[in-house]
């Protein structure tokens, strides 16, 4: 079995295998075995490699997570100082890998469709094969969104982005199996849940969403961090409503 995620991340970062190995101080043959034989390096080396490639170590080598489960609740898979640092491949992989449920609570989520134009089609497909898809998108007329725009010094810019997002995602409003709603709440964090994994984009006063921190979480019976955000989504969902005319 090969490690295609590692191979792709190295290529995307612009390194050859030899250059990648040199940067992290290992023999090129060792790095090659990580890719072709899916070998898992020592955690220290894995952390150094992942930092170079800009991805969480456990995304490249899931075995690292499994090895840590006995030492803690293991809910935090990755932390990013800015949402823009979340690997584009991770967003795609989480969506493609979802088999039970997808929950999105956001104002716009334009980055999903801009980075991966097939996102809307994939969401509709997931719903058509039985995956529960719930999307709570911002209502562009909501006072909370106008206020957030002022706080981020975007004036009507955020409202425009929310309107654009609703236009992008509009095909999902009547797509079979998709539950598409609007909300007017003050959004303290955007939630992107795919089965038992979740990316939470926290919002910081005066900062655009892509500059604010993001957490990559995994559900664990030993902790309640994932459940905290899942409960937040459920409360927001109760406040959401159908778009006019749908």
TrEMBL record:
<dbReference type="InterPro" id="IPR010982">
    <property type="entry name" value="Lambda_DNA-bd_dom_sf"/>
</dbReference>
<dbReference type="InterPro" id="IPR001387">
    <property type="entry name" value="Cro/C1-type_HTH"/>
</dbReference>
<protein>
    <submittedName>
        <fullName>XRE family transcriptional regulator</fullName>
    </submittedName>
</protein>
<feature type="domain" description="HTH cro/C1-type">
    <location>
        <begin position="6"/>
        <end position="60"/>
    </location>
</feature>
<dbReference type="Pfam" id="PF01381">
    <property type="entry name" value="HTH_3"/>
</dbReference>
<dbReference type="GO" id="GO:0003677">
    <property type="term" value="F:DNA binding"/>
</dbReference>
């Amino acid at each position: 079995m090969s490690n295609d995620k590692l191979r792709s991340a190295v290529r995307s970062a612009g390194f050859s295998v030899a250059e990648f190995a040199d940067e992290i101080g290992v023999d090129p043959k060792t790095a090659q075995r990580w890719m072709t034989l899916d070998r898992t390096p020592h955690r220290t080396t894995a952390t150094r490699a992942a930092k170079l490639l800009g991805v969480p170590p456990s995304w490249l080598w899931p075995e690292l997570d499994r090895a840590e489960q006995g030492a803690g609740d293991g809910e935090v898979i990755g932390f990013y100082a800015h949402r823009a640092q979340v690997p584009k491949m991770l967003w795609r992989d989480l969506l493609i890998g979802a088999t039970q449920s997808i929950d999105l609570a956001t104002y716009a989520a334009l980055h999903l469709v801009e980075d991966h134009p097939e996102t809307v089609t994939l969401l509709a497909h997931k719903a058509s094969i039985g995956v529960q898809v719930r999307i709570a998108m911002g209502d562009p007329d909501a006072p909370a969104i106008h206020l957030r725009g002022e706080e981020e010094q975007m004036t009507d810019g955020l409202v425009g982005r929310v309107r654009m997002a609703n236009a992008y995602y509009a095909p999902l409003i009547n797509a079979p199996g998709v539950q598409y709603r609007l909300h007017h709440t003050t959004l303290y964090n955007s939630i992107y849940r795919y089965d038992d994994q979740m990316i939470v984009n926290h919002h910081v006063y005066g900062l655009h969403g892509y500059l604010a921190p993001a957490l990559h979480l995994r559900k664990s019976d030993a902790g309640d961090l994932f459940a905290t955000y899942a409960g937040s989504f459920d409360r927001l969902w109760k406040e959401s409503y159908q778009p006019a005319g749908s």
